[in-house]
């Protein structure tokens, strides 16, 4: 059984970061620097939501939880890799600091060398600071001050997972949520992504708390193909938070409207979707010619299908509707992605959720055993929902952990 975070699974089992010595007297500053490097030639499958963003790249410093270390060893796993994953999807000029520990015992990766490196980096001004997977108050007080001082002057602060309770207070919270943090965001795990977001005014700067149980930038999940497909949308949330916190949102707004649940087409025997049930709405304070790139993704396994791009000319202050023409689909959960480009680059991006429902289908699959060795018997029982149409065939495939089809069996029309 494969286990791990979605970030490691996105790399298809390649070990990116293992246990790393905490770097004491037997190392040097160069080795500590290499341990923090974000350079990578490994490109994993991803949705480039904000690459080529019209607002330009953000200079950002990520302070990343390096695991629950005793000080002798750090085990960051894929936590640092998540910064690389974010940079594949958005334009970042990023540096990172690893900070390990739990309870009241915390230290920098590299110990004294790591702490000196962190102090040097924090002495530079950044447009964005991201605290990934640990409470801000665990940092040394002087370093907390260095970050908050820059935020008060206009930089952005994003806290993923644990927050910054002393600074992100109810009095500073912005209600309702800014559109950049709430509009055109899909539902995952039955919840709106925006439900985990809080925004704050912090002097001249902005703060965002992503209260989603992140161990780094995104929540930890056991592997499923659905989780792997949803990883792009957790990164969409983090990227949007980063852009808003750094005051880099563009003037163009993108919202999604429509009916989230779609009934099946009884006469066709297959679920259908009408062309106007999901609509993206664009609005700009100035004239702008854009192209809306659309893509459909099946949530259960991440299968993608490009849809026809739509050209639009926006007049100042006038909303333009972009209906999504979706092809015939099987029943299930889907996500529709939109990336809006102008001559300047990416102006906006977002996604919407939809559910295609059917009166018939597979209701339940039962296995006689959850694990078998070669040569062992296994029985499969499939329960159907509703009467299937004439000529329908139930196809059962048994696959191994390498996704190889070991056995395929087809059954004619059956009930119950």
What attributes characterize this protein structure?
single chain, 8-stranded mixed sheet, alpha+beta, 416 residues, 5-stranded mixed sheet
Rg for CA atoms: 24 Å
Question: How many beta-strand runs?
Answer: 24
* Count of runs of 4 or more consecutive helical residues: 7
Helix content: 10-25%
What spatial order of strands do you see in the largest sheet?
A: 5-4-2-6-7-12-11-8
How much beta, percentage-wise? Answer: 25-35%
Which residues form runs of ≥5 with pLDDT under 50?
1-19, 259-276
Oligomer state of the chains in this structure: single chain
Structural class: alpha+beta
Q: What's the overall average pLDDT, rounded?
A: 87
- Spatial shape: globular
Q: In whole angstroms, how far apart are the ends?
A: 31 Å
Major sheet attributes: 8 strands, mixed
What does this entry look like structurally?
It is a single chain. This protein is an alpha+beta fold and 416 residues long. The protein contains seven helices and 24 strands. It has an eight-stranded mixed sheet with strand order 5-4-2-6-7-12-11-8, with helices on both faces. A five-stranded mixed sheet has the order 14-20-19-16-17, with helices on one face. A three-stranded antiparallel sheet has the order 13-15-18, with no helix packed on it. Strand 16 (288-298) and strand 17 form a beta hairpin. The longest helix has 21 residues, at 225-245. It is globular and about 70 Å long. The relative contact order is 0.11.
